[in-house]
Design a protein that fits this description.
CATH topology: Porin
Strand order of the largest sheet: 1-2-3-4-5-8-9-10
Number of helices: 4
Strand content: 35-45%
CATH class: Mainly Beta
Distance between the termini: 39 Å
Largest sheet: 8 strands, antiparallel, barrel
Shape: elongated
Helix content: 10-25%
Length: about 280
């Protein structure tokens, strides 16, 4: 009977401590992409909003494990470039992004003792994308099935790219402790990608006859669009440069992260300190 009661107490105590180390949060801000169709940071023409939810678990007072789900739309277009040659290339794309990430956060200062702390984070993410563009009539056309650079066609080296990919999120920011439970952070996070096809542009032009035979006229029209913007009316020769595979695409978020520690009412009169068990002991 004594062992049974001890087990119940231990489970209850562990549950309370766990809940007092768990923070839930929301993230909101701006998102953008860099790649073959955009080189500027947060260009106003193609910067969009991002929204996410997060769950943080305190491993120690200064180390957090964070999981998050985020949604945004990113894009780019040659028509916004200052380079006239790129304007005449006239390629464009947009894509919805759904991301699940797990990162570790390290805080330089203990937020139970300090009002604010710089922090850094890094981890792994899984994201889904599906690039599309609008044709000359304004119809949305998804680009990956068209093999715009010959991906997957006979005689071409590249395979069709997958729409679910891994990324490495990393970045940093400053977090402010409003009280022991409520925190707000300003952060910037970049995603290193392992694909150069977020924007459906990476390498060279395919032979338009190959595209026409395998994918139809829409693939030819969406692969080369210079004829719509004052460029050459003739489709470029097979192997002519369309993009650059040397620099991989990446996307990034900047914004505000608000978190609340559940399972504890906290104190509005000052910051608490933690016992060695990890459960809080309020100081008044």
């Amino acid at each position: 009977m004594r062992n049974y009661l001890f087990t119940i107490c231990f489970v209850l105590f562990s549950s309370i401590c766990f809940s007092q180390r768990l923070h839930i949060g929301i993230f909101g801000g701006a998102s953008a992409y860099n790649g073959d169709l955009e080189e500027r940071l947060f260009p106003k023409q193609v910067t969009n909003g991002v929204l996410g939810i997060t769950g943080n678990y305190e491993i120690t007072d200064q180390i957090m494990l964070r999981a998050g789900l985020s949604y945004t739309v990113v894009g780019g277009a040659d028509r916004f470039s200052k380079d006239t040659a790129l304007q005449k290339r006239n390629l464009a794309f947009e894509t919805e992004l759904f991301e699940f990430s797990v990162t570790g956060e390290y805080y330089l200062l203990n937020l139970y003792n300090s009002r604010y702390s710089p922090y850094v984070f890094a981890g792994v993410a899984l994201f889904h994308f599906d690039p599309y563009a609008f044709d000359a009539t304004g119809q949305k056309v998804f680009l990956q099935p068209l093999s715009t650079e010959g991906q997957g066609l006979n005689g071409y080296p590249n395979k069709p790219y997958k729409l679910m990919q891994l990324a490495i999120p990393f970045g940093g920011g400053v977090k402010f402790a409003i009280n022991d439970n409520l925190r707000v952070g300003l952060e910037l996070g970049l995603r290193k990608l392992f694909t150069d096809y977020l924007d459906d542009v990476s390498g060279n032009y395919a032979d338009p006859n190959d595209l026409l035979a395998a994918k139809g006229q829409v693939a030819v029209d969406m692969s080369y669009r210079g004829d719509e913007a004052g460029g050459s009316p003739t489709y470029p020769a097979k192997g002519a440069q369309r993009g650059s595979p040397k620099a991989k695409d990446y996307y990034y978020f900047g914004g505000v992260h608000l978190t609340y520690r559940i399972g504890n009412s906290g104190s509005s009169r000052g910051f608490g300190r933690k016992s060695k068990t990890g459960c809080p002991v309020n100081v008044y």
